[in-house]
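Open question from group meeting: does this chain pack into something compact, or does most of it stay loose? Before anyone orders reagents, we agreed to write out a predicted structure and look at it together. Recording both the input and the output here so the notebook holds the full record.
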Amino acid sequence: MGKNYVESAKLIDKSVLYTPQEALELAVKTAKAKFDETIELHVKLGVDPRHADQQVRGAVVLPHGTGKTVKVLVFAKGAKASEAEAAGADYVGAEDYLDKIQKENWFDFDVVVATPDMMGVVGRLGRVLGPKGLMPNPKSGTVTFDVTKAIEDIKAGKVEYRVDKTSIVHVPIGKKSFGEEKLKDNFRAIMEALVKAKPAAAKGQYLKSVSISATMGPGVKINPTKVTD
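Structure tokens returned:
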């Protein structure tokens, strides 16, 4: 552990479940790196992701964005390609980008959007896009004919959330420089979306544990019963 991490860890009482406001203040205070650290949210859910009816996945536009400039690749043709370019997509194309990704191992983008008629092409990239979490999906709004809305939402700070195989959702809620109030707005937006996304098949306690941390900082535990306060 680095010196900054050790010093930061002293500020946190591991036996305490903090309120969101207290936790965010600590996360910002313990972000001591020289760059603008991302504040990350980690939520352990009471679901079994091995079952299809207990998957938790979706997307939400954060009120204050993520603080990150996002590059968008759109698979579309004709009028929809022109619409995507006008909406501010960084890259727009079809088979040409399929070849670029497959043959050149090109990944200079953060999000992929595709019109439904292009999913036959994009599907051929499943093996490379899937493991990187880049495969377009209707649930997250990235498979759509409304490419303008998809691009505008992404550029405005839309984040995807998805439960992993350990039943945990990891999602960024902004940068240290946002300050506690903006981070709290983003935190609340994510938590409300997660609560709303609770599968009907999930039994018992849904929010098992909630914590936040800066990129290089220690985790701060939050009381799960206080997350939407």
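Observations to bring back to the group:
Residues 13-65+158-226 form a domain with the Ribulose 1,5 Bisphosphate Carboxylase/Oxygenase fold (CATH 3.30.190.20).
DSSP finds eight helices and nine strands in the chain.
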